[in-house]
Amino acid sequence: MSRPEPTRRRFLKTLAAAAALPALPLSAAEKSAKAARLPRGAVVPDKPPFPVLEGLRLTPPEGILREVAPFRALAGGKAPADARARLGCTHVSGQYWFTGKPFLTEGAERVRDLGFGGLKLWFTKADGTARGFREGDAAPGRNIGYLPNSDWKLPADWSLAQLARHPYYEAAFALPFSAFALEVYPVNANADARRAGFDVSPDSDWDAEERGIYELARHLLEAHRGREVTFILQNWEGDWMFRGGARKHWTAKNFGAAEVGLRADTMVNWFAARQRGVERARAAVAGSKCRVLHAVEVNKVFDSLAGLPTLCTHVLPRVRVDLLSWSCYDGMRTGDDSAEFSAVGIWQGVEILRHCAKTTTLTDARGRSQVMLGEVGVPEMRMLKRLGAEKARRATLAVLDGCHAAGFALGMPWMFYWELFCNELTDAAKAARAGTGVLAKATAEELNGFWLVRPDGTRSWAGEYLGGLLGRVG
Prior knowledge:
The chain has 474 residues and is an alpha/beta fold. The protein has an eight-stranded parallel barrel, surrounded by five helices. A two-stranded antiparallel sheet has the order 3-4. It contains 17 helices and ten strands. The longest helix is centred in the middle third of the chain and has 28 residues, at 257-284. It starts with 7 loop residues before the first helix and ends with a helix. The radius of gyration is 22 Å and the shape is globular. Helix 5 packs parallel to helix 7 (167-173) and helix 13 packs parallel to helix 15. It has a single domain (51-470), classed as Alpha-Beta Barrel (TIM Barrel), CATH 3.20.20. Helix 11 links the parallel strand 7 and strand 8.
């Protein structure tokens, strides 16, 4: 039987206790091992594989660790005073739930009650369906990212602006978050005659893309005119979309210059159309306290140094966007089980992004291109199977401490945790459920463990860390 859902007031009363999250004591053997493996940094080749990387300089690990030390919560550091506004959580396609409320509403309210200032949601038109990542087949008229206890009744043909007016989204947008990140796929994702292997069609109607984003952005600016709130319209992990069907098999041997050029041109056209739509909406709605920003999300930053075409090397130098988002698993270096390694990875990844993208309109206090962490997540169950319970807990807390300390030190405006309720079934669970069409709650053993709240209602190790971090606001 799951524990009752905590109220926001009850949760906030626990923050003082959670703030006492202790530094993790190391054994003599662990101290020796740690000293012997100071974090290594990324290596910029003497001859960079792409011209855009010429002149790239990365801060040495020891310099990075000095910068992040004041924000290391597990070492006694404090989060910035505005940390709650900068920390967010994603809710989509979770494989379990606890109430009879519509799934989108339940998750949004739970993220609010956990004390986060930001909420990330899927917000996408495809196949007549508002799409997400839930295992199973899509069905017209439903939002497959938010199915449990929900009756979407979406019309056969609807716009993004109309989706924003749906009661479930309106209820979420009415909650007191200061930022909403919305994952928006191509406006006409399935209306185009997509080419095999392309996530974004080279034959897309870019005017329709611009118009759809303009209508959504204008609606948000007008509907929230009197409220200081930010909506971030962004893509999902852009390097996967750039590669299409190749994904993890994208190597120096399986792409040609002509195909890479076509893919890069397509992504440039897509991002440019979305940016135009947002800018037109901002020009059309004067005096709104609401902000709408367009972000491009990347997810394979360090592949740039290995000679693989990425958004960093082939797209970002050619576009103008408000903000960069990084789904930062390649920088977290989770397998190193170390706060120091994670901090160095995040810091140097941001340096690569800032080197390649010079044209963002939102900048930090030093005038540098602004980057947010669009996804930060640790798979608790995978860690548990690899390391055992206590070591896995230590490693999870350490990795998150390094990532968030680097984010705060770099002045990132937002960092979104992946995610509230785990969406990822194990391979075995996927095989067992394949073709059943049954919407059933998953157990912890069937999931990879990207969660703040486990299926039994308890708080995860990541939930423990972030609860403590919210209680250590300086």
